[in-house]
């Protein structure tokens, strides 16, 4: 997975759960700049993965609300599957490394080291 795909996955996930209300909060939760977040959201909108709905807030003020489109829901599911496969592969590699280190430490049963 590329860094861009990872960012898109995390952005789609947060937008789907409604855990972000502004680009600023999305930027903070992703750990990236507001400018990069704006570019990411624009790209998601351009690809029709996210729709921007404008709602009226306080008098004289409007707020943008981001909603996943059906295409965005499919993309989120696809990216979720890819992330899961990637994490499982990473887990297997870590498990092999842990087993090798445990053998080097003379403790083939890793639980004996934790105690």
TL;DR of this structure?
This protein has 5 helices and 2 strands. The chain has 115 residues and is of the alpha+beta class.
Q: What would the CATH topology be?
A: Arc Repressor Mutant, subunit A
From the N-terminal CA to the C-terminal CA, the straight-line distance is 37 Å
Q: What gyration radius follows from the Cα positions, in whole Å? A: 20 Å
Q: Going across the major beta sheet, what is the strand order?
A: 1-2
Annotated CATH homologous superfamily: Winged helix-like DNA-binding domain superfamily/Winged helix DNA-binding domain
Biggest sheet statistics? 2 strands, antiparallel
What number of domains? 1
Strand content: 5-15%
Helix content: 55-70%
Q: What ranges have pLDDT less than 50 throughout 5 or more consecutive residues? A: none
Count of extended strands: 2
The CATH C-level name is Mainly Alpha
Number of helices: 5
Shape: elongated
Specify the CATH architecture: Orthogonal Bundle
Mean of residue pLDDT values = 89
Structural class: alpha+beta
Order of helices and strands: HHHEEHH
Can you offer a commentary on this structure?
- With 115 residues, this protein is α+β, with helices and mostly antiparallel strands.
- It is 65% helix and 12% strand.
- It contains 5 helices and 2 strands; from the N terminus they run H-H-H-E-E-H-H.
């Amino acid at each position: 997975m590329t860094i861009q795909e990872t960012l898109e996955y995390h952005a789609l996930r947060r937008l789907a759960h409604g855990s972000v209300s502004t680009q600023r909060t999305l930027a903070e939760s992703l750990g990236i700049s507001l400018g990069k977040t704006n570019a990411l959201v624009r790209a998601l909108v351009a690809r029709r993965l996210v729709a921007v709905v404008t709602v009226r807030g306080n008098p004289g003020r409007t707020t943008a609300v981001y909603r996943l489109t059906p295409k965005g829901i499919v993309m989120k599911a696809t990216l979720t599957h890819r992330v899961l496969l990637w994490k499982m592969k990473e887990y297997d590699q870590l498990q092999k490394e842990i087993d090798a280190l445990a053998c080097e430490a003379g403790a083939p049963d890793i639980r004996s080291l934790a105690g």
